[in-house]
# Entry
Amino acid sequence: MTPAEQARAEAARGFMPPDEGLALWQAAAEVDPSLGPALEVGSYCGKSALYLGPALRDRGTSLMCVDHHRGSEENQEGWEWHEPDLVDPAVGKMDTLPIFRRTVHDAGLEDTVVAIVGDSPRVARLWTTPLSLLFIDGGHGEEPARLDYELWTPHVAVGGVLLIHDVFPDAADGGRPPYEQIYLPALASGLFTEESAQGSLRVLRRQ
Ligand code: SAH
Ligand code: MG
# Structure
């Protein structure tokens, strides 16, 4: 990652600490593009896409970014991670798509990043393309996390990687669903083995 790319990713709005962002970049830099494109669930304003995107562009592949852009439960008014300026006043709902687009444009990644605007399970049920890399950072409630595991992880190609964000084995550090509904079932399936960890990010490889 060039210093300019890194600075742009760090400056982007969102929820990705620099060390975990660099781990995203590292995993993307090592993908085998012959396995398929990469896909992230949960893009928000594009911060994680700015870590994954440059590496995937250099590997000659694409990043599909699935998000309904209406925010997760914890982003809504009255919740911990709400950002009031992201509400579309005409609609009365959050809308992160305009910032996402601007962020991807300004980073020169429009040739790599494909926005898929919609509900993650709805998109997943129509999905058939094998993935070289899957990054799950969508809804962190129990049901959304379970559905993202169930519906998206079967698409990771053998030899591909599954990246999971906000994995907190100790409940004191944060919400449990990504740990309980995605990370543990992935390991228990026998299909994935853990390759590395950085902060709350886990990198698993599909056997
Ligand atoms: N990866 C981002 C943070 C993602 S926050 C970053 O680096 O900053 C979680 C995102 O998941 C939110 O943008 C929210 O809109 C999205 N999300 C939550 N539930 C979803 C669902 N069911 N379908 C699509 N997107 C969803
Ligand atoms: Mg996250």
